[in-house]
Amino acid sequence: MVPAATGVWSPAAAPVAKGHSKAAARSVWLGLPALPPVPGLRLAAQGQTRAASFCKRLARNVMAMAAGEPTAAPVDANEELTEFVNALKQEWDRIEDKYAVTTLAVAATLGMWSAGGVVSAIDRLPVIPGLMEAVGIGYSGWFAYQNLLFKSDRDAFFAKVREVYEDIIRS
What we know:
- This protein starts with a helix and ends with a helix.
- The chain is 74% helix and 0% strand.
- Residues 1-17 and 23-28 have low confidence and may be disordered.
- By secondary structure, the chain is mostly helical.
- The protein is built from eight helices and no strands.
């Protein structure tokens, strides 16, 4: 039983206990001693694979769900998805310069992907993530103090946001 305590598997360590080689092999992988077999229970009679056991549990769940009341949620979700796709098709048909929109979508996707790669690379550096977090907290505090803390500053900030929004919508 010594090889079972090491946690290292070897073919020679598998038949540690006579008659309990399967249980011992399982315990060798975990590095724990094997439990004694349950009297009167044979592993061959138990012999269902994990897939068969999973299929039986799945069948029980399906039968239990079939016995209950049908829910309308999947149908509603499907209808919402269909409405969304139809609205998207209508908007796509309204666009005159499809080439420009497609180019912008691809450029935005590539930009987000590359920005994610840059952030991931910076995050792997030892000191930089903590420094960037401190800079972000500092800038957030400064922004809130400059634009959100006092009512006059807040009104000016929201007016500027509305102005930029209107410029984007008009063009």
